[in-house]
Amino acid sequence: MVVTFNRAVRTLRRSGTRDAGERFIQLILLVCAVSSIFAIFLIIVFVFSQGVPFLAEAGLGFLTTSVWLPADSFAAGTWGIFPIILGSLIVTLGAVAIGAPLGIACAVFLAEIAPPAVRRLLVPSVSALAGVPSVVYGFFALLVIVPWIRGQFGGFGTSILACWIILSVMILPTIISVSTDAVRAVPREYKEGSLAMGATRWQTIRSVLIPAASSGIMASVILGMGRAIGETMAVLLVAGNSVTIPGSIFAPVSTLTATIALEMGYATGAHQQALFAMGVVLFVFILILTGLANLASRRRVTF
Amino acid sequence: MSGEIEISVKNLNLWFGNFQALKNVNIDIPKNAVTALIGPSGCGKSTFIKTLDRMNDLVDNVKFTGEVIYKGRNILNSDTDVVALRKEIGMVFQKPNPFPKSIFDNVAYGPRVHGIRDKKALNEIVERSLKGAAIWDEVKDRLNESALRLSGGQQQRLCIARLLAVEPDVLLMDEPASALDPIATSKIEDLIYELKKEYTIIIVTHNMQQAARVSSHTAFFFLGELVEYASTIDLFERPREKKTEDYVTGKFG
Amino acid sequence: MKKIFPIALISLLVAVAVFGAGCTSSTSGSTLQLAGSTSVQPDAQALAQAYMANNSGVTVNVAGGGTAAGITAVGTGTAQIGTASANLTASEMAQYPNLRPYPICVDGIAIIVNPQNTAVTNLTLTQVMNIYTGNITNWNQVGGSNVKINVVNREQGSGTRDGIQKIVLKGGNFSTGGITQSSTGAVKSYVAGDPNSIGYIATNALDTSVKAININNVAPTYANLADGTYVIERYLLYVTNGPPTGLAASFLNYTLSSAGQAILKAQGEVSLNDVPGYVPPTTTTTTTTATTTTTATTT
Predict the structure, then answer these.
(1) DSSP H or E stretch at residue C76
(2) Pairing between strand B170-174 and B89-92?
(3) Does residue C267 contact residue C42 with C-beta atoms inside 8 Å?
(4) Which positions in chain A touch C155 (Cβ < 8 Å)?
(5) Are C79 and C73 in contact (CB under 8 A)?
(6) For position A76, what pLDDT does the model report?
(7) CA–CA distances in Å: residue A200 to residues B74, B93, B110, B112, B137
(8) What is the pLDDT of residues A249-259, one digit of tens each?
(9) 3-class SS at B70?
(10) Is the distance from CB of A267 to CB of A74 less than 8 angstroms?
(11) What ipTM was predicted for this assembly?
């Protein structure tokens, strides 16, 4: 009896220390989680506290008018960011329109068609693409793509088209990796069931695999879109940053992120607040995108 | 062996890389009958039926020798139109695998990929196939519901209906009832009994009672070899080989 | 998504560490912090190196950020000296009324074109103005070939842009037709690549990749900048909050000394000693009168 009791106590003690260890780990994880939420919260509060008063004062005209002349040494400011909002939307949507089909096709190829040797070569290449700093993309585009566009189509070369090309490449890794996972997560049985009925490989991909992976693919596209709208450095270098409503895809354009990055270093007073207000606008855009992404990935897999 | 022969297999050998999964298999499959394949796990019976519709092609590093004569041609030839072959020799899998589509779209999938677009024709095919798979009465009022909301047994019969819609000649069934409860299993077995009037059926099963109930012929596989092939009654009651006897009497497996 | 948590934590820690480090270094007595114009930055760095070599134990940090950032830094006490390539604005003076600007040298702004543009070697100040306001859009209007002029600007708030706006545009607004590049180097490399472009950079950044245009038939040479015949030029400034004291005063005096001016000259700037009739201000008075207008102040 005594021996059994002692053993039980020992077991309890051991599990007691184990529990303490568990609790400690849990505490650390909790602190990590809370601090990241706290950081996000701080950023939101700061951006909104700086930007919202300006938005309230400048009113809807801030979003809908087209003359952007921040307060400088010479005159009071004129605030209209419509061309910048438009620029961000055109650049983002265009980049996604080019990048998404490419990325999805590449993902299907990687997940379904590529022989293992090719896959072993391609997967690290895609990861490497994701690791290239955006300023390097921008510089490459400035030295290669911009002169090419200038030579082919005239104008400045720094243009919507240059942004589309470089951004569509930059969002590829996101779209490819998330979509590849989505396609590979489709149960093997679906594919076998389709092939066993005499469907061709392409019919199987088109009618079964892609629809079954559609929520993941949609999420990848929206993540890519988030990356495109948030990208700053590469766009700054190749956009031309002209605050006008662009007349063609060869015209220079400015985006929310690039304008903030370009002017924040100098901005004081109302100009600075206006840039924060642009940050609020950008934040709302990204919030909408994240919401859509969550919606897409939660959607039941029926089609 | 009496009756017409649907598929004739001669000297079939198959390797996955360096592993030989099938060793010199010779077997004649009778037309419009149920042939059961039995044997312990890993004996090669699933591999064998996947050779008949070339689904093994999906596996990397597979190679094979020998002949599988179907409609006068060796389907193992590299010039075989695999897609057309699979339309004639269809397969039902161990785990029911309806697509995440509606019941209607599941059955209409095959006809659609084979080019039938006409709504009326599709309606007819879907109804006929669902009736053929004895599931029409259970689903006729909810054809637009997701197939994933059906029970396991219903899903498996839906998969059979899906297969019937492409009008195959041969049905390969890879342990079609192993994931199902006894009631669903008996429905599948009743269905197989009905289907053999029009189709040649080859069924892989772990369940010897099932083999005895549904099949006219039974083949016993062991370690990649076809040990014994006979009428079901003979194989279970008068096995020629010692190994077969040990297996059917439950001494191993 | 889960990967974000540790990353956020680490960035928070890094931010705290950097912030903490920043605090300690700025309170240390033997450290002088400069911040501001990127045009002044290389000059100030050269001066800081020489100054540190002569005064062991002293650290002079030179940060960039732009003229406006420099003014804010000195106004809020983050830096002891702000560097500026444009005069203080009314709103800046209103926000920090004790700011005092001290000219340290003269810096020219060159109007640059692509070397392939051989037809155009001279422009009048009015022509440059009309190009930048959008009234002249084709090179053939100023003696060049019949192609559109690709106008390259600097970003809002750049001291160089302010200089052009003040001296060339007389305070008028730039046309929105051009593109904006974010640094002197970016303007130079764009103009070096586009035969139809025009841009502007500080004269000390000139090299053979671009061609400097004569303004009113005057080239942006050292002598022409010194005697003021090349008109697109401005003083580069140190700005302090109140009269400079301690290290800041010492560094300002070193900058204005003949040794300091020699370093600036080596950097491609015009020494104040070479400007005819220039009278250095005494360190207790300001050269610019603070205006009290509040038209452009913050709201």
Answers:
(1) helix C67-76
(2) parallel
(3) yes
(4) 241, 262-263, 266
(5) yes
(6) 64
(7) 21, 18, 11, 12, 32
(8) 999 999 999 99
(9) strand
(10) no
(11) 0.85
Which of A112, A113, A190, A197 to mutate: most B Cβ within 10 Å?
Answer: A197
Percent of chain A at pLDDT above 90?
55
Tell me how far CA of residue C277 lies from CA of C162, C228, C238, C272, C280, in angstroms. Answer: 26, 11, 21, 10, 10
Q: Would you say C125 and C224 are in contact if contact means Cβ atoms under 8 Å apart?
A: no
What are the chain C neighbours of A242 within 8 Å (beta carbons)?
A: 176-180
Report the pLDDT averaged over residues B230-236: 92
> Residue A303: which pLDDT band, with cuts at 50, 70 and 90?
very low
A144 touches chain C (CB under 8 A): no
Tell which residue, C196, C237, C234, has the closest CA to residue C110: C234
Report the residue from C6, C177, C179 with minimal CB separation from A158.
Answer: C179
At A262, is the pLDDT very low, low, confident or very high (cuts 50, 70, 90)? confident
Convert the pLDDT of each residue in B169-188 to its tens digit. 999 999 998 888 888 899 89
Q: Are strands B34-38 and B217-222 parallel, antiparallel or unpaired?
A: parallel
| Range C149-163 average pLDDT | 87
Greatest Cα pair distance in chain A: 95
Q: Residue range B94-111: average pLDDT?
A: 92
pLDDT at C111: 96
Residue of A nearest to C89 (CA): A73
Paired with B37 in beta bridges are: B204, B219
pLDDT at A264: 82
What is each CA distance from C81 to A51, B32, C246, in whole angstroms? 29, 98, 12
Q: Do A197 and B110 touch (CB under 8 A)?
A: yes
DSSP state of C82: E
Taking the Cβ of residue A240 and every Cβ of chain C, the question of whether any pair is shorter than 8 Å is answered with yes
Q: Is C59 helix (H, G, I), strand (E, B) or coil?
A: strand
Tell me, yes or no, whether chains B and A touch by having 3 or more C-beta pairs under 8 A.
Answer: yes
- Residue A217 and residue A215: Cα distance in Å, rounded? 5
Which residues neighbour B164 within 8 Å (Cβ) at sequence distance 6 or greater? Answer: B128, B129, B132, B133
Nearest by CB to A196, from B55, B112, B148: name it.
Answer: B55
Mean pLDDT within A141-152: 92
pTM for the model stands at 0.77
B partners (3+ CB pairs within 8 A) are A
Q: Which residues contact A34 (CB under 8 A, 6 or more apart)?
A: none
Identify residues of A whose CB sits under 8 angstroms from chain B CBs.
116, 187, 189-190, 192-200, 203, 207-208, 211-212, 301-303
Q: Answer whether A70 sits within 8 Å of C157, measured CB to CB.
A: yes
Residues of B in contact with A194 (CB under 8 A): 99, 109, 113
Chain A hits for C95, CB-CB cut-off 8 Å, are 268-269
Radius of gyration of chain B (CA): 18
Cα distances (Å, whole numbers) of residue B165 to A49, A163, B10: 64, 50, 31
Q: What is the count of residue pairs from A and C with beta carbons less than 8 Å apart?
A: 128
Instruction: Determine phi and psi for A78, rounding to 5 degrees.
Output: -120, 125
Task: Give yes or no for a contact between C287 and C243, defined as CB atoms under 8 angstroms apart.
Answer: no
Angle formed by the axes of helices B152-164 and B103-113, nearest 10°: 20
Contact of chains A and C by CB distance (3 or more pairs under 8 angstroms): yes
The token pair at C237 is 């400034």
The answer to whether A158 faces chain C, any CB pair under 8 Å, is yes
Task: List, for residues B64-92, the tens digit of each pLDDT value.
Answer: 999 999 999 999 998 889 999 999 999 99
Per-residue pLDDT, C258: 92
Question: pLDDT digit string (tens) for A184-208?
Answer: 999 888 999 999 888 998 999 999 9
Q: Looking at the predicted structure, is the pLDDT value of residue A3 above 90?
A: no
